[in-house]
Amino acid sequence: TTPSDLNKISKTSTTPTMPTPDTVGHEFNFNSTYTQLRDLADTNCTYFSRQKTDVCRRFERLLIQLKHTLDLSVPLIRYLTDNFHHFDYSPEIKAHGYRSLVVAHGQACVGTLDILQQVDTKRVGLLFNLMYSSRLFQDLESWTKALIAMQHILTLAVNMVDYSEKKVLYVDANHVPLDIELDYFKMVAFDSEYFFGRTCGFQFQMNSNNSLGETSSSVRNKNL
């Protein structure tokens, strides 16, 4: 029931430079981030599964989703990374959308790892339920949903690479096979609100209507 050894994790796996589209898969990668995140998710999922409260059950279910999407996404990222060179503008200019997608997913994993490390250090004790669980759950849920949405994008990207025979970056949408169309519609249909909320730095407002009403009243009273 004790938190994981975060000091050990931070010393052994943090890369000195965050990968960018032109360096990912070549000089730097997010491999250590994936490993940390998957291991910490598994550790905390096991912990919460042994607890009896509703809060812990919610965290357990969410962490199961997180582990599942990581297990599906990382092989897709490995495949894209292995084929980056087919789509680079030139040997000197390493740039295209597949690189940017892998970097975006890696950065989302870094954000998720930060939240999960906070959960790991604060999960034990009464204060977790009273003070920390609500905010941390909302944060972790937002990042997890964003990663699930990106999993659908990665699936489409891998199928497009295969369909193009690793030769063409842009495929003709009018001639793609049905399975790629289906992947596209799965991607579009998935709820994308998490890309534009907590993961972009916006804060949750639990009672926005009341707050707006109170703000309007305050302004009106000041004007009077």
TrEMBL record:
Pfam families: HSL_N (PF06350). Residues 1-25 are annotated as: Disordered. Residues 12-23 have a biased composition (Low complexity). Residues 34-207 form the Hormone-sensitive lipase N-terminal domain. It comes from the Eukaryota. InterPro entries: HSL_N. One of its GO terms (biological process) is lipid catabolic process. Residues 1-11 have a biased composition (Polar residues). One of its GO terms (molecular function) is lipase activity. This is Hormone-sensitive lipase N-terminal domain-containing protein. It comes from Rotaria socialis.
